[in-house]
């Protein structure tokens, strides 16, 4: 299964923290990503099915929340995600006149 740009960004965001889905969704929305909540959760489920992300129920502020985190395979994929993102940013940075 192909990993798209937003999938790579999810993997990168999960590298530094375990986080429940809605908080992760809010971070993406705050960063300017235009994606519906339903599609965002479909992306998380796809990454789970690929074995890159896992989840478990935890109590967060007294409420049961599904918390997402990278698996060992996800951590391995992280390096290529970072490299691809760096190449992309280098490419677009070179095309923006300052």
How does this model look, in words?
The chain is α+β, with helices and mostly antiparallel strands and 98 residues long. It contains 4 helices and 3 strands; from the N terminus they run αβααββα. The chain has a 3-stranded antiparallel beta sheet. The model has no long low-confidence stretch (mean pLDDT 89).
Keywords for this structure?
three-stranded antiparallel beta sheet, 58% helix, 4 helices, 3 strands, alpha+beta, 98 residues
Task: Give the topology, please.
Elements: H1 5-14, E1 19-20, H2 21-30, H3 37-49, E2 53-60, E3 63-70, H4 72-95
Helix pairs in contact: 1-4
What's a concise summary of this model?
The protein is an alpha+beta fold. It contains 4 helices and 3 strands, in the order αβααββα. Helix 1 packs across helix 4.
Strand content: 15-25%
Number of helices: 4
User: Could you state the order of secondary-structure elements as H and E?
Assistant: HEHHEEH
Largest sheet: 3 strands, antiparallel
Strand line-up across the major sheet: 1-3-2
- Taking the alpha carbons of the first and last residues, their distance comes to 38 Å
Which spans have pLDDT < 50 for at least 5 consecutive residues? none
Shape: globular
Q: How many strands appear in the DSSP assignment? A: 3
Structural class: alpha+beta
Helix proportion range: 55-70%
Radius of gyration, whole Å: 14 Å
Average pLDDT reading: 89
């Amino acid at each position: 299964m192909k990993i798209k740009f937003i999938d790579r960004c999810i993997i990168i965001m999960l590298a530094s923290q375990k986080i429940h889905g809605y908080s992760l969704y809010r971070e993406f929305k705050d960063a300017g990503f235009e994606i519906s909540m339903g599609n965002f959760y479909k992306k998380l489920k796809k990454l789970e099915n690929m074995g890159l992300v896992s989840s478990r129920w935890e109590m967060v502020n007294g409420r049961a929340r599904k918390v997402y985190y990278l698996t060992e395979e996800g951590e391995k994929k992280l390096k290529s995600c970072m490299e691809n993102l760096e190449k992309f940013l280098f490419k677009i940075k070179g095309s923006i006149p300052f």
